Amino acid sequence: MRKDINRISLAGLVVALGIIYGDIGTSPLYVFKAIVGNNPVSDLLVIGGISCIIWTLTLQTTIKYVILTLRADNKGEGGIFSLYALVRRHAKWAVTFGMIGGAALLADGIITPPITVTSAIEGLRTLEVFKDLSQWTIVKIVLTIITLMFVVQQFGTVSIGKLFGPIMVIWFSMLGVLGLSHIVDDVSVFKAFSPHYAIKLLTTYPRGFMILGAVFLCTTGAEALYSDLGHCGKGNIRVSWTFVKACLILNYLGQGAWLLTQKGQVIPKDTNPFFAIMPEWFVIFGVLIATLASIIASQALISGSFTLISEAMRLNLWPKLKINYPTEMRGQLYIPGINTMLFVGCVAIVLIFKESSSMEAAYGLSITICMLMTSCLFAFYLYTRRVRLSLILIYLVTFFTLEFSFLFANLVKFMHGGYVTVIVAGILFLIMMVWYKSRKIKNRYVEFVKLEDHLPVIQELSNDSTIPKYATHLVYMSSADNPKEIEHKIIYSILNKKPKRADIYWFVHVDVVDEPYLSEYSVQTIIPNEVIRVEFRLGFKVEQRINLMFRMVVEDMVRNKEVNITSRYESLSKNNVVGDFQFIVMEKFLSHDNDLPLYERLVMRMYFFLKKISLSEERGFGLDSSYVTIEKYPLVVAPVTNLQLRRIIHS
Question: Could you say which of 12, 33, 436, 646 is the most buried, measured as most Cβ atoms within 10 Å of its Cβ?
């Protein structure tokens, strides 16, 4: 049953603060520092900068995500793959937007932990005792924190996760109070609420348009508001965002007011306005709270990456990987391969860029692309819901103008480190594209036959006592959507390869549906106690534990007296011994008898390389390997047709 995602509760609000706002909530650590850069402090730079921030948070975060995109909930779930699942049956091409957006979001997960943790630790230099702290020492502290963070992933974060909400309440309260205490330094900062100053900065300030690249950092975590819709609910997100946005704007106003007291000066590289507005006695506490907040932000992004990959796997957009469930909490999962990939990426970012100011140059480019893809998918979602075309056009013009402006401003970052996340996103997209395209190529080869045409011979084989019995119950995983059809290779496996006599033949089909957590099955008894088809309909967020699920189905059928699973060997039958179950999994290899075009040949070679390093078919379906037989068969997707052979006749 669908939960009430509009329900608001105090506990839900605190959970939302702990899960969703880590990335966007820690942006005050580096946004203003990036906007000011090496420029002398001026009224236009500071007030125009705050105005850009306020209107970016209003248009991009509040209107686009909190008000509009949250409406596109998929049975209470959100995120770019949930949005893709909502529209994919209407348009096959939507998959490209989903893959690009997913890859960009994953790439963002590699740079967010380094920049947030490094910015927090660099705050120690605000203290007199640590003002000479070397960058290499900071790098070592950051690497230690990041290493510990990735090590604990395998144990789950439920116990410490309970602290995330309260810590983030303290963090946002601190942001608001610190900002409020400094607004009186120069109340002219309130002029920033007028968009006039944002436009003036972008159009008249030297290279003013390029400042948008730094401004964009204030909204990089907006995508998380939609991705975590299922965890927190629409109502809790919308209410908690009003508190978060107020605290963020207050802090930016406070930083701006302090900066206006430094008018005409160039802010030293080691000075961060965020820590400069803290009383000296509070700095050590501020650094500690900022570090905890940056860890929470990183944790949320890592968990989000695990969820994203698991969804991609169910939607056949990513190679199957081992997934662990460290706790009983729904949605809590751990993917060792992705954890290692993110860890290596984060360490590399820290070692390459070292300083948070250098990381700012690389940050934001990939996530801009993700936001553009969300805009495209959401516009098409509105179209499928028959929203007026004029309103869809207004939406696209507004947010395309905004996001393409951010994209062009961020493109300047490409040569200053942005290439790192773009390359990472490109590699991740390539993996998804290869996995998706190879499936399309393979489907050209899969040959389905009518099951009824082969039932008589299967029945004869089952009762032919001259052939040794292969198993009491023989279970095949079938990809046939039509219950009246079966793959030709399965029939070949039963009858031709080595005749497999069994008492009951089971054909199991898994249908991954667009509803996130659907978990249901249907049974079709084709020949009572001889041929049975079981179809599982599982949501794209549901783990495919077919071994366990199939056992539950069989037990249910036995209770309802729909099947007799007792062994038919006379000695075992009279003692009611249950017969054995044997699963047959077909494993493909690329045949040399293929004549593929160059592009498809490359796709298939990459596919089989990825297949070697990914989870095997039986483990992907959650089958117990002791009950599985692997059968290899050649994949011939494009048979060679131009081979000529001439026979020589000897006299």
Answer: 33
